[in-house]
């Protein structure tokens, strides 16, 4: 055989081998891409569907809130229906049936003006007792008890009230709540309470049917076939053909039970000789009995390969000549994004967390670029979270936690801490008299002073509640002197708030008056909430008692009030004077309370003398020597709030002596009681 023949045959064999290997690799890579793309589209569709669910729930809450706040007739109907059996002093109350019938008629007349009602397949309203006022499925029905309907019961108790109706047992047979009852239809329902202040006046139940329109929206997002599965794996709705629907129903019935989350990874099914990728997810997380399937035909996605194979055969002779050029272009295409990633990594290392790479190669390098951008976004989010945490605790505490993360209290840890509770007096009047922007500016000035004092003393700002502040000392970093730190923060805040009060007065604002209560005791401290939203907080009787002490300031004429437990834990660092013995709401046992006056070594002789006179007057008061107490307390000074208040009580008791079993304990729930 001649050499050129051998060379021709060798080159022909090489071209055929290269062509066959290329076809195998292309088919394999394309199938992998099809699977990856299906997984991404499935995740994207699932995320979009979950966002749509969350948006729908928020819209329902906003609509109900808008009805409660912006529609006085709607409020009147619910209020009347919720007090159906109360006799308001106008000559006898109407019967509950008459009241509910009237509420039903009035609500039906309001329906044309209620925004959003027509958009929902399920719309029902009950009073606070769970008795039906109106349901769109049976407008003239009323009075039926719906307390057994799970979403309404949960909403009345303040819990998350979302449910999925896919079985007849999910809702009562009577009255009808849905136009087409399960299992022929699936509904996602949300219940929202209607409350005025802290009082529940009714419940609103809203539901949307999951039908072909929903599936069509999901198909628009994913480009995949969609099927809705009900209980017992029956196909409720699908956008597929009748033949595909029957095959899907058969295969779903044979499929194993879904996982605990209800989400299954993409699997390959054979439907009538055609390969399909299928993945399943629940409509509502945690209720895997009802879900949807996303399907994509692998064979249809790979249909272009047949034409590609023909093109490869036609161009086989040119493959060897183009190999070197293709290798050069490929190397160049790889080197450029890698170099860009290396430069971006250097910028991130230098602290530039706004760095972003734009790799659009359409392969793994693009995925690497996407992962790099996600990593930088995660670092940026961690930095933001750190800055946010520094708003609640001092920077020194944050630095200590970063060095020793084991010092952070786990969820539900018991710890003895000092709890500080502060509130503004007369803030409601200020809110009514001033513009909201001015009220917010004043409130921010107050928070700046009080929170700044807490952080300077090494405390943690746990919550801002309206015009109140809840802070704790001794966590997350355990400080043995937490009671001392709490007293220091209270005195520092009081000093700065006094200066702020002068500034408010100069600007023509109402006088600034504040109250602070501190108690030391055992609490449960740590992260509280869900996996998505948490806060670092404290709960326990010590928190409640600190709040009660804050309120007791008003009855005792003080600004800062601490319990005997805090005074004992603070030791000799500060000078205190005893204010008396009180009994607060929610506690049968009385406790002694004290007022911190300042650092023990910094009190002026006049302050010490006034303190001694007050405590001597308190001792005479307890000994039932009320006239002697009046004399001592008057000597302490009429400008001193606690002495003046105690003197007035002693003067009243001198005029009308108490009974023999009088124990000198002041019930701050009833300030006038001796």
What keywords describe this structure?
674 residues, Beta-Lactamase, disordered C terminus, 5-stranded antiparallel β-sheet, Alpha-Beta Plaits, alpha+beta, flat, 19 helices, 9-stranded mixed β-sheet
Model description:
49% of the residues lie in helices and 21% in strands. The chain has 19 helices and 19 strands. The protein has 674 residues and is of the alpha+beta class. The protein is flat. Strands 11, 12, 13, 14, 15, 16, 17, 18 and 19 form a nine-stranded mixed β-sheet that branches. Strands 2-1-5-4-3 form a five-stranded antiparallel β-sheet.
Roughly how many Å is the radius of gyration? 36 Å
Q: So what's the overall shape?
A: flat
What is the level-2 CATH architecture name of the domain at 406-603? Answer: 2-Layer Sandwich
State the total count of DSSP E strands. Answer: 19
Helix content: 40-55%
Distance between the termini: 126 Å
- Low-pLDDT segments: 257-261, 670-674
- Mean pLDDT, all residues: 78
Put simply, the count of helices is 19
CATH class of the domain at 406-603: Alpha Beta
Report the portion of residues in β strands.
15-25%
The CATH superfamily of the domain at 406-603 is known as: Nucleotide cyclase, GGDEF domain
């Amino acid at each position: 055989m001649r050499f050129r023949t051998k060379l021709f045959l060798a080159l022909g064999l090489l071209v055929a081998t290269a062509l066959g290997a290329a076809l195998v690799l292309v088919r394999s890579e394309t199938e992998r891409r099809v699977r990856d793309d299906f997984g991404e589209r499935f995740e994207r569709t699932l995320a979009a569907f979950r966002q749509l669910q969350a948006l729908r729930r928020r819209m329902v809450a906003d609509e109900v809130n808008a009805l409660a706040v912006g529609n006085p007739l709607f409020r009147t109907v619910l209020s009347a229906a919720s007090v159906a059996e109360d006799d308001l002093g106008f000559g006898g109350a109407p019967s509950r049936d008459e009241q509910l019938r009237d509420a039903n008629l009035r609500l039906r007349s309001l329906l044309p003006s209620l925004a959003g009602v027509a958009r929902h397949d399920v719309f029902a309203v009950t009073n606070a007792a769970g008795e039906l006022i109106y349901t769109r499925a049976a407008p003239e029905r009323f009075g039926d008890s719906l307390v057994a309907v799970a979403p309404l019961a949960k909403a009345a108790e303040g819990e998350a009230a979302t449910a999925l109706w896919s079985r007849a047992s999910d809702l009562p047979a009577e009255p009808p709540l849905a136009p087409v009852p399960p299992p022929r239809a699936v509904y996602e329902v949300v219940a929202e309470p209607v409350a005025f202040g802290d009082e529940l006046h009714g419940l609103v139940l809203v539901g949307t049917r999951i039908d072909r329109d929903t599936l069509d929206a999901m198909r628009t997002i994913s480009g995949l076939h969609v099927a809705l599965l009900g209980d017992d794996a029956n196909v409720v709705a699908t956008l597929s053909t009748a033949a595909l629907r029957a095959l899907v129903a058969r295969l779903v019935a044979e499929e194993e039970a879904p996982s605990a989350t209800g989400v299954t990874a993409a699997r390959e099914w054979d439907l009538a000789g055609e390969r399909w990728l299928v993945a399943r997810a629940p409509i509502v997380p945690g209720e895997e009995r009802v879900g949807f399937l996303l399907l994509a035909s692998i064979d249809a996605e790979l249909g272009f390969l047949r034409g590609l194979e023909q093109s490869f055969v036609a161009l086989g002779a040119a493959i060897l000549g183009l190999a070197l050029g293709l290798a050069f272009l490929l190397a160049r295409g790889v080197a450029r994004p890698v170099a860009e990633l290396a430069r971006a990594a250097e910028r991130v290392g230098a602290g530039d967390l706004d760095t972003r790479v734009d790799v659009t190669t359409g392969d793994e390098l693009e995925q690497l670029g996407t992962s790099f951008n996600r990593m930088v976004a995660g670092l940026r989010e961690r930095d933001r979270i750190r800055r946010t945490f520094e708003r609640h605790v001092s920077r020194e505490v944050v630095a200590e936690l970063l060095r020793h993360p084991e010092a952070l209290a786990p969820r539900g840890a018991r710890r003895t801490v000092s709890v500080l509770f502060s509130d503004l007096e007369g803030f409601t009047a200020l809110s009514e008299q001033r513009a909201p922007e001015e009220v917010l500016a004043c409130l921010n000035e107050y928070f700046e002073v009080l929170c700044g004092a807490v952080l300077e003393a090494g405390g943690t700002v746990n919550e801002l509640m309206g015009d109140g502040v809840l802070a704790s000392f001794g966590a997350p970093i355990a400080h043995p002197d937490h009671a001392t730190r709490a007293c220091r923060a209270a005195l520092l805040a009081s000093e700065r708030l006094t200066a702020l009060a002068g500034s408010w007065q100069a600007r023509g604002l109402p006088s600034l008056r504040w109250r602070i209560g501190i108690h030391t005791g055992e609490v449960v401290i740590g992260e509280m909430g869900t996996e998505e939203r948490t806060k670092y907080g404290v709960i326990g009787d010590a928190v409640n008692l600190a709040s009660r002490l804050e309120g007791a300031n008003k009855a005792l004429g003080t600004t800062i009030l601490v319990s005997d437990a805090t005074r004992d834990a603070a030791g000799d660092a500060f000078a205190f004077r005893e204010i008396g013995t009180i009994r607060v709401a929610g506690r049968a046992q009385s406790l002694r309370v004290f007022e911190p006056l300042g650092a023990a070594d910094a009190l002026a002789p006049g302050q010490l003398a006034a303190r001694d006179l007050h405590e001597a007057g308190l001792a005479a008061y307890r000994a039932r020597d009320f006239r002697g107490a009046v004399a001592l307390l008057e000597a302490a000074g009429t400008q001193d709030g606690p002495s003046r208040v105690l003197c007035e009580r002693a003067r009243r008791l001198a005029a009308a002596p108490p009974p023999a079993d009088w124990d000198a304990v002041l019930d701050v729930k009833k300030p006038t009681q001796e």
